[in-house]
Each structure stands twice: as structure tokens, then as C-alpha cells.
Amino acid sequence: MAFDMPTERWSGKLNTVTIGAGTRTSTVTVGGAATLPFLRFEAEMPSAPAVAMEVLDEPLDDLPASLAEQLGDVVSDPAAWAKKCVESFGADLICLRFVGANPEGKDKSPEDCKAVLQSVLQAVGVPLIIWGCGNYEKDNNLIPVLSQAAAGERCVLGSAVQDNYKTIAACSLADGHLVIGEAPLDIQIQKQVNILLTDMGVSPDNIIMYQTTGGLGYGVEYAYSIMERTRLAALSGDKMMSMPMLAVVGSECWKTKEARLPESVAPEWGDAAVRGPLWEATTANLFLHGGTDILVMWHPQAVAQVKKTVAELSGEGA
Amino acid sequence: MIVIGERLNGMFKDVGKAIVEGDPAVIRDLAQRQLDAGANVLDVNVGPTAEDAVGAMKWLVETIREVTEAPLAIDSTKFDVVRAGVERAGPTSMINSTPGDEARLDRYMPLAAEFGCDIIALTIDEKGIPRDANGRMEIAMRIVEKAMLNGVDLERIYIDPVIIPCNVPDAGHHPGEVLETIRQVKLISDPPPKTTLGLSNVSQGTSERHLINRTYLVMCLAAGLDSAIVDPLDTELMNAVTTAELLMNQSVYCDDFLRAHRR
């Protein structure tokens, strides 16, 4: 007897968002799904989730050994780091984060940061996510300079939060970029941020949602349930929850002791060179099932594993 | 809630006049304003003024189609008028409505099947409006049976339990019986038919029409009503619907939940 797969009919679907324009040699399109993640037998999921690899404007002081081994000395040169991520590791996007601009750290000037951005824009052709340092006051001075330097490239600017969204929204409108709307694992605040951004004139098609996620073992279950609830709201027709989602996986995972500790310190946890990337890949896989559209990642082996999973779930070989 | 906007009805003076004068601007404007206010479906009724009801329906549907492809509920008691409207409105349209007696179900269900459109069926038959929920359910079951016999998907059936004005003497029990019917319709079949209600009838001839309308609508939503024929330009009513949906956990709360809904 033939088996009829039971299917659900949804009234809504995700916005389709294309990142990259201008001098970018490739673009990334995410969203558009009319069902839960990868349930293609039920409804369309026209775009596969994309992987952004994170590049920092300042090298980390304490890079774990397995990451240092893979990335080598490019970590002191953001342009070379980005190039390696694209050419050797297959990154679909580069997420350039200006940690060095933080006043509590190196407090780099917007002009210095702009030079870094320009070098990365020249080094790679993939679309960029440009993320400030997280200090509201500094970001409000920094983001306009970076936004203008990348005008017309249709980058993603990060990030707008409930208490600080006006400058970044204005930059997105002025220079043709998308905006990350960020919320602290709170679906209600996420919706409110989206409304505030659209109040400023940002089109819903130019917003990507980001809930501050943690790594495996640090509240991922809650993050997953937030993602799932968000997707269900979108599929039920909530236009203010229908934006694609982004998750920061790499930097969160590599904060955890489980990913970082060398085998010499925690022999019962096994080979750190396997454990670290696995920690990141497992977190990313979970978020794929939660409905994440863009994963921001660090370790090339984790990236490769996730890309393989995406291909398999998309029915492209096994 | 699936909002069926009631304003494109020749019973309203502005629409009646526009039909008689063939003025498309009024029609297009009302179509667009209702959609902007949250209507999912636009009810289209030529009203009593048109001499050539079929011609008026064709003109109305074509005029609306110039501005929107939104689903239209073709509203008439005359079969030919309904057919003419559905033909022009396309497969996203809705028949509004058929009574629940054998003879008319046998005419209208095949029409719904032919065009693959939704259909509103009233729990009213040759004996009139039943006194209670049991009588309404008898007719609802006949409607479902006729739908199945004619191959009309049950999710395309909208059962309207027919509310009568709350100020009719000795009819004060009807609002409660309609609520009970809304609950029981969901038990008829799996998947169950949908429910809808021509809401404004409940307040006909009363002094506080808007208040009665929105209070009763919220009660019906709590009982499981899927859809209603309402005036979407009644902001307080639409806000009550949005709030009811929020309280039933059908939408995500945020501080600007009313504005969010209107986006």
C-alpha cells in the first residue's frame, strides 16, 4: 500500500533575502521556506542555510591549538584570514567583527577599522556581514563609517537592539545594507526590534533576526525552542517574525571549556583536535534543525561537517 | 481569524450609488482600504438597487480585480449571480452562501466543486433557523454529507450557525446556542469544517452596535470560530480580534502587538 506522508499546510512563509551586490562576485540568498527546516516533502525550502566564517579585526590572544593549526598565521591579517576562509574552507560569507574597536580593549578608531574593512572587501568576493564591537556608543560612531565604506555592497550590518537601533537602521537605508535585529533569547523583544526597525523605514526584507545563542551545553535547548517558536510564528503568517535567522556558533562554542581544554588537562574528554570542532559542528547542526538560515562559524572542520549535513538534508547525495 | 470584509455591499449607500452610476473609484478604494485594515477576503454583494444583478456582479468583480487578486466572497441569494461572480473571481473565491436545505445544497455544492472554491453554508433550511444548537447541528451534518458526496474538501466548507439580533423578543438564548454550535461543528469530522459568522446581525436594531459586535465576536473566537464577516474598518473591532488572538496564544506578544498585526 502506498504511504501518504502526513503534511501540514501553513499560511505563511519566510522572507527571501539576498545578501551581496555591487563589487561582490557572489551573492547569498536565504529564506523563502514555507515549512519547517528541511521538510521539503511538505512545502518548498528554496534556499539552503549558508555558512559565514568569522574573521576578527584583531587576532585572539588565546586561540585554541586546533584553531591555530588550521588558520595558521593569517589570524594577524584579516584580509588573508578572510581569503583563506573563502578559498580553502568554502565560506559562503565572511562575518567581519570589529572586536578591536571596543573602548574596553584596543579602542581602534573608525578610520582604522574602515581600512580593515576595505582590505577584506578587496581580498574576497563573497558578501560580508559587518559587526560592530557591541559598545553602543562606539558602534554608533563606527557603523556609519563602515557602512559608507561598503555602500552599495548589500552587506549585513550588526546589530540593532531594542535600546540601540536608530543609527544602524539609518545606515542601512542610506547605504543599501541589511540589518541584524538582535534580541536576548526573547521572542517578544525580537518582534519588537523588528517593528522598531520597520518603523524607521527598513523593509522587512532587509532584516535578519539574531537571538543571542550559546554553545552546546550552555542553553542551546532554549535557543532551539526560541528558533522553533519563531519559525512557527512565521509559518502561521506573522509578518513581523518572518525574517531569516542567524546564529553565532563559532565564537560561542570556542568560549566553552569543553571545546577549549587540551587533552593534557582533561584526558577523559578525548582528543581536543576532534572534540573542539565536533562541539561547534554539533551546535551548528542543532541550530540547522531549529531553523537557522545563516551560521557564523570558526573551525574549518566544523564548517565542512555542517556543509555536508546541509547537502545531505537537501537531498544532494548521502 | 479569517476576516471577510463586508463593506462592498450594495446595501451601503456609497456602494449602491457607485453600482448604479458605474463609478469604479469608490469600489477600488473600499477594496484596498479593507485589505489594508486586515481583511483576508472581500465580500461582494450587489445589493437591492441593481436592476441587472448578474451584470452588476460581473462589473463589481472585474472592478475589484483591477486592484487586487485577494479572495472574494461572492454574496447573493441568486444562483445565477453567484455563478457569474465565481466565474470571474477565480479559484480563490468563496460562495456566500447556500442555505442548508437539500434542494439548494444539491445546486450549490456542485458549483463549489466545479470551481474548486470555498463555500459558506448556513444552518438554516425550509423550516427556518433552528431554536437551538441541536437543530443547527442537524443541518451542519447535512451540509458536511453533501460536501463529501460532491467531492468538496471539508476544509473548504464554512458553516455559519446564523445569529439573529439579540433584541428579538424571546430569542435571547440564540447567542449561546450559536456558541455551542461553533464548538460542536469541530467534532463533526476530521478534518472538521471551518466556521464563520455574519456577525453584524447580532446587533441589528440595537443601540450599541459596535460594542455588541466586538464583544460577541471575542466570545465566538474563544469558542473556536475560524472566520467572520465583519467591517474591517471598525478599528476597535479589529483590535479586539488581534487581542483575542494574542490571548489564545495564536500570536507572539510584543509591546506594539496591535501595530505589528497591522503590518
Molecular structure report:
The complex is a heterodimer of chains A (318) and B (263). Chain A has 318 residues and is α/β, with parallel strands linked by helices. Chain A has a single domain (16-305), classed as TIM Barrel. Chain A contains eleven helices and ten strands. In chain A, strand 7 (178-183), helix 6 and strand 8 (207-211) form a beta-alpha-beta unit. Chain A is globular. The two termini of chain A are 27 Å apart. Chain B is an alpha/beta fold. Chain B has one domain (2-213, 223-231): TIM Barrel (Alpha-Beta Barrel). Chain B contains ten helices and eight strands. Chain B has an eight-stranded parallel beta sheet with strand order 7-6-5-4-3-2-1-8. In chain B, helix 4 runs parallel beside helix 5 (102-115). The mean pLDDT of chain B is 95. The A-B interface holds A 187-189, 191-192, 195, 198, 204, 229, 233, 236, 238-241 and B 250-257, 259-260, 263.
DSSP helix count of chain B?
A: 10
**Helical content class of chain B:** 40-55%
Please tally the β strands of chain A and state the result: 10
Total of domains of chain A: 1
Unreliable stretches of chain B:
none
According to CATH, what is the class of chain B? Alpha Beta
| Strand order, largest beta sheet of chain B | 7-6-5-4-3-2-1-8
Strand content of chain A: 15-25%
- CATH architecture classification name of chain A: Alpha-Beta Barrel
Cα-based radius of gyration of chain B, to the nearest Å: 18 Å
Share in helix of chain A: 25-40%
Report the structural category of chain B. alpha/beta
Mind summarizing the main beta sheet of chain B?
Answer: 8 strands, parallel
Distance between the termini of chain B: 16 Å
Strand residue content of chain B: 5-15%
Cα(first) to Cα(last) distance of chain A is 27 Å
- The total of beta strands of chain B comes to 8
